[in-house]
């Protein structure tokens, strides 16, 4: 059954999710409490939550089905709603965590170390070559 907003209304279960097939366009299958599963034409299924923050609609992706379970998505939804009740945007919090992780990566640490500790030029060049080979960029 499809509603006016284009979201398929049915209770999500693991069995129901596994039975979903990708369509020509992305479609949504509602769960409960604002959680829904977005099914892309590629077959990717992502748990998402739409909410209003500062009078603007925002969406946070809680995870991909297969990487997280339905139960884990519901737990993440509860945490996102708690953040929202505390005045914190779940999408902005997720982005800040992602940025913090990127800032604390080994690559960033190694760059700081080679700059601050005065390593030999040959070591710096080797670091640059490794970045090109591994990452495809200096």
Characteristic terms for this protein:
138 residues; 5-stranded mixed sheet; 5 strands; elongated
Low-confidence stretches: none
Largest sheet: 5 strands, mixed
Neighbour order of strands in the largest sheet: 1-2-3-4-5
**Structural shape:** elongated
Radius of gyration: 21 Å
Number of helices: 5
Q: Residue-averaged pLDDT, rounded?
A: 81
Query: SSE order in H/E notation?
Result: EHEEEEHHHH
Distance between the termini: 52 Å
How helical, in percent, are the residues? 40-55%
* Tally of strands: 5
Taken as a percent bin, the fraction of beta residues is 15-25%
Q: Structural class of the helix and strand makeup?
A: alpha+beta
What's the helix and strand layout?
Layout lengths: L6 E3 L4 H6 L7 E4 L4 E5 L5 E9 L2 E9 L5 H16 L4 H14 L2 H11 L4 H15 L3
Summarize the structure.
Helices cover 45% and strands 22% of the residues. It has five helices and five strands; from the N terminus they run βαββββαααα. The protein has helices at 14-19, 70-85, 90-103, 106-116, 121-135, and strands spanning 7-9, 27-30, 35-39, 45-53, 56-64.
Description:
- The protein has helices spanning 14-19, 70-85, 90-103, 106-116, 121-135; strands spanning 7-9, 27-30, 35-39, 45-53, 56-64.
- By secondary structure, it is α+β, with helices and mostly antiparallel strands.
- The chain has a 5-stranded mixed beta sheet.
- The radius of gyration is 21 Å and the shape is elongated.
- The termini are far apart.
- The mean pLDDT is 81.
